[in-house]
Amino acid sequence: MPFEDKLRKYNQIKIDLLKMSKHLDFCDETEKNLYQNICVEYTKELKEIKKSLEQTYGIEICNSDTRK
Known about the structure:
Blueprint lengths: L2 H24 L2 H29 L11
Helix pairs in contact: 1-2
């Protein structure tokens, strides 16, 4: 997959994750677990794409997560 496509996919997943996390603020308790699970899966995918971009292209993508 070309670099631009990977970067687009990475950014789209970030956007989707932000949208899903907003649902957590407004959903009722019965839906909360569902949205939390979706956010976890999006986060896993982001980490994999980030790792792939760094290994393949030798770039570092800024990460605000200090728990590395």
